[in-house]
Amino acid sequence: MSKTTTSYRTRSVQKEDKLAWIDIFTGTKDSYIIFRRVVITPESAAKVFDRFLDSNVSSYCNFAVVDYNEKDHGQFPNRRLVGTGINGQDEFVIGFVSFLTHVNNWADTEVLYLSDLFVSEFNRLGGVGKALIQTCYDFADKHDNIDRVYWKTEMSNHRAQLLYRKVGKFEGFVTYRRPQEGETVDDE
Fold it and tell me: Which domains does the chain have, with CATH numbers?
């Protein structure tokens, strides 16, 4: 089902990437919301993207991109064309990682929370997810005040956990949240 991608690179999102972000985040094919089975409107996705570019908000996003190549475009129909890349060639988005930093209540430091990681199904198992996680590690390493990187995943997302065991340390925590309106707590 998945194919490896041999020539990709990672980079931070730019203002010109907004439509590609909305598409890979909320599109009708091979998008983050399809994978996660959630509903996010394009308007909400646009607001999230705007935060990535707001210097007053500690929210960031990196893309994994490949150069546009007409001969293999048919093999990867769900790539998002984002326009001209750093080498003057058109690019397709094949994945992203979004993350934020926040204060650490136990030390005079900050921590980096990897919020979302997504790789197009046609580009999984080729190292793209690992490279996107590495961009978070690199970001933390460039900022002396960030002393920890962490993330969470669904217990049923076994494929992701195979990757996470290679690049991270399982901490053993379970996540709880406030019930939404109409939901009951688990112990009722």
Answer: 9-167 (3.40.630.30)
